[in-house]
Amino acid sequence: MNESLESRSNGAYDVVVLGAGPVGQNVADHARAAGLTVAVVERELVGGECSYWACVPSKALLRPVVAVADAQRVDGARQAVTGRLDTAQVFARRDRYVTDWDDTGQAEWVKSIGADLFRGHGRIDGPRRVIVTRDDGARHTLTARHAVAIATGSRPVLPDIPGINEARPWTNRHGTDSSTVPARLAIVGGGGVGVEMATLWQGLGSQVTLLARRSLLPRMEPFAGEFIARGLTQAGADVRIGVRVTALRRPDPAGPVTLTLDDGGELEADDVMFATGRAPHTDDLGLDTVGLTPGSWLDVDTTCLVRGVEGDWLYALGDVNHRALLTHQGKYQARTAGDAIGARAAGLPLDDAPWGDHATTADQHAVPQVFFTDPEAGAVGLSAEEAARAGRRTKVVDLDLSAAQGANLYADGYQGHARMVVDLDREILLGVTFVGYGISELLHSATIAVAGEVPLKRLRHAVACFPTVSEIWLFLLAAYHRK
Predict the structure, then answer these.
(1) Which cysteine residues pair off into disulfide bonds (predicted)?
(2) Beta pairing, strands 139-150 & 129-133
(3) Which of 169, 412, 425, 482 ranks highest by number of CB atoms within 10 Å?
(4) Contact 320, 293 (CB under 8 A)
(5) Is cis: bond before 349, omega within 30 of 0?
């Protein structure tokens, strides 16, 4: 498509945004709403990792897997499930949601808000200056009167082990854009990407072996990973905890890959996927021209201004600031920072006190996350261990989710668990964790309670509808008050 590459003849804008994923789009939108001129630079597809290789395609692929599993947990519906998933239709559904990796619609959206889209690699060239190099070698120089916002995301990191290049491993990208189901798939890594991909590919017909050095979902409450491991095992996956891959072999590019494990054993698979960490896309952004280290995570203040750069002009949003590698949290930062950029440009005072309009307070206190496994796992705020390390005086309340009659109606033999961590001094929630079927739609109520610091005395007046899974709130609050 034809982007408006020369609509500003001198290349001067109020704001230049590096990265046109959801985070970059949100900061651009809020800066435009403040009346500022905006240039958006993108080197790949407009819409970014989330739209084409992460959140959107993975959930599009996972939904049919979990929908069938949900049906099989309900008498009457179970008997109607008579065959396997139609993988061709599952992949076609994914393709629709990623618009066949065509970013025309999202590029048009950027244009519709009045921002100019520049395709190419953007590189900072000193304070408030960005040089964009297109694939054909053409270069455009952009200058920013008020702000440059880095929203370039992150990339998967492959471990430095013998045979890694020969093995040609998958990362999250091939895990979501592949349309071929391997007979045997080894997945290395027990974090969110690893457990979702294990759920997905086991459901599509692969024999999945999931290898994790520690527990699954190690940053969540321990019971979350235990439930996920049990669910994957019941689905037919081989889950191995406390195992490390030390080497790989794939002498025949068309043949299987052999994984050597630190317990002395070996594992053969048709493909191997690594989900073992990410690094920021900051290695070739010209950070050295403003006194920063290329390839580093960027340290920011509460308005997402990068620390160590003079002049209050460089912002870092989303994955690159390493606060929470979650699309929704990056979009929250982008909205907040976009408003702060507008206020600074207009000479208005900043409301950057905790929970203010220009403060990303939720990054420290109320980060929600959901993993679309079977069962699902979701949490917001602090875990019991994190609260204890912070020196908070707490009471931890645990309940089986089947205490809510709505859960049992949702699935015969419902399996799930709920935990809330209460600050005893203030009687507010510090954190909540759910694991169970369909709990992703339950988590926002917990997020509101934690972010809003709703007193438990008031929270008891939030009446849950009968019979829903959310009735678990009534039982959690009753358990807290029970001496």
Answers:
(1) 50-55
(2) antiparallel
(3) 169
(4) no
(5) no
Picking from 408, 417, 422, the residue whose alpha carbon sits closest to that of residue 376 is: 417
Mean pLDDT of all residues in 420-445 = 97
Binding residues for NAD(+): 189-196, 277
Residues at the binding site are: 59, 122, 152-154, 189-196, 277, 319
**Is 5 a residue whose pLDDT tops 70?**
no
Residue 396's SS3 state is strand
Judged against a pLDDT cut of 90, whether residue 9 lies above it is answered with no
Q: Indicate the SS3 state at residue 123.
A: strand
SS3 91: helix
pLDDT value, residue 483: 60
Domains of the chain with bracketed CATH = 12-47+103-155+280-362 (3.50.50.60), 164-276 (3.50.50.60), 375-481 (3.30.390.30)
pLDDT tens-digit readout, 213-252:
999 999 999 999 999 999 999 999 999 999 999 999 999 9
Place of tokens 């043949």: 255
434 and 454 Cβ atoms separated by less than 8 Å: no
Torsion sign (Cα): 182, 183, 188, 192: positive
Q: CB under 8 Å to 136, separation ≥6 — which residues?
A: none
Which residue numbers belong to the known binding site for FAD? 59, 122, 152-154, 319
The two three-digit tokens of residue 9, written as one number: 């003849």
Looking at residue 8, its pLDDT comes to 58
Question: What is the tens place of the pLDDT at every residue in 109-134?
Answer: 999 999 999 999 999 999 999 999 99
| Integer Cα distance of 324 and 216 in angstroms | 18
Per the CB < 8 A criterion, the answer to whether 238 and 267 are in contact is no
